[in-house]
Design a protein that fits this description.
Layout: H1 2-38, H2 40-43, E1 47-49, E2 58-63, H3 65-68, H4 72-83, E3 89-94, H5 100-106, H6 108-115, E4 120-124, H7 127-132, H8 134-148, E5 154-158, H9 170-184, E6 187-189, H10 191-195, H11 198-203, H12 217-232, E7 242-246, E8 252-257, H13 260-291, H14 293-301
Helix pairs in contact: 4-12, 8-9, 12-13
């Protein structure tokens, strides 16, 4: 009996020593992951934040991990709180790996817009489909925009980005979205294109996370700046460089922590990119109008 007890105590002591050694060696890595655990609930919360007044704009985000990593919807809301003194009412339907077809088939998107009025709906398509299936992209952008308009919303298209190792393919994604948006009359937020803009490259800010697919804090901040300007039509200059969110147990969790210089650089470049996209959209709209059958008939009659 005493021998068995000694063996038990020895085993327990060994386990404690091994566990303590593991904690000592990995404490930094473990503590670095704590914010990620605290962010799980707010990241997937359908009603992300309440508007500051009944007149505050109501925005719905529909997408996957490109949108929910670093909580881009919350960043946009935080920018508005600081710059417009008005927090938007934010809803989100975000599912890992989902494309717009999956969101349509799940039915939550349609149900939400049938029951509530939104001012803006931001839709984000899957990267792989955006690259390889342009006809499907246009089909589901059309279907998603029809669903969004059930609530009277303006549709903003969140352009995705390719894996960093396949940067040459971003031009094809942008071309696919430009053509689809022109035909459907939607507003494009050129986020994917911005990831490869030479002005961003010159800042030496790494917009990709370590997996070369998702956005880093810099990339998510860039995306939020472009979305803010595209949605509200106003400059994001002066947006907060550090943003926190209430995570689990109501604890403040940092989402992004940039220096003022880094934030200012991303704000300025985002503004230039959005303004350039507006000019391209205007030119494309004018070209499409000139080539329309109605205008061709008028020209022939004259």
């Amino acid at each position: 009996m005493k021998k068995a007890l000694r063996l038990f105590l020895f085993g327990m002591a060994s386990f404690i020593v091994i566990f303590a050694t593991f904690l000592a060696l990995n404490w930094r890595k473990l503590t670095d992951q704590i914010p990620n655990f605290l962010l799980i609930e707010p990241t997937f919360r359908i009603h992300l934040c309440e508007g500051s007044s009944p007149e505050s704009p109501k925005i719905l985000f529909v997408g996957n991990s490109l949108t929910f990593i670093n909580m881009i919807p919350w960043l946009v809301a935080s920018f508005s709180t600081k710059l417009r003194n008005d927090t938007p009412d934010i809803y989100q339907l975000l599912k890992p790996g989902a494309n717009l077809e999956a969101h349509d088939r799940l039915g939550h998107f349609k149900k939400l817009v049938e029951n509530q009025k939104f001012d803006y709906v931001v839709v984000q398509e899957q990267t792989g489909r955006s690259l390889d299936e342009p006809a499907e992209v246009e089909k589901w952008l059309k279907k998603s925009s029809e669903t969004a308009k059930l609530s009277g919303a303006k549709v903003i298209v969140f352009e995705p980005w390719v894996n960093r190792r396949f940067s040459d393919e971003q031009n094809l994604i942008h071309k696919n979205f430009e053509q689809a948006n022109r035909r459907l009359g939607l507003t494009l937020a050129p986020i994917g294109d911005a990831f490869f803009d030479e002005r961003i490259q010159k800042t030496n800010l790494k917009v990709y996370a370590e997996d070369d697919h998702h956005a880093s804090a810099y990339g998510s901040y860039l995306a939020a700046c472009i979305l803010y300007e595209t949605i509200f039509g106003s400059n994001c200059d002066g947006a907060p460089s550090t943003v926190k969110v209430k995570g689990a147990y109501n604890l403040d969790v940092p989402l992004v922590q940039l220096s003022e210089e880094q934030a200012s650089a991303l704000q300025a470049i985002s503004h230039q990119i959005v303004e350039e996209q507006k000019k391209r959209s205007h030119i494309n709209s004018a070209d499409a109008e000139e080539k329309s059958p109605a205008n061709s008939s008028s020209s022939s009659a004259q």
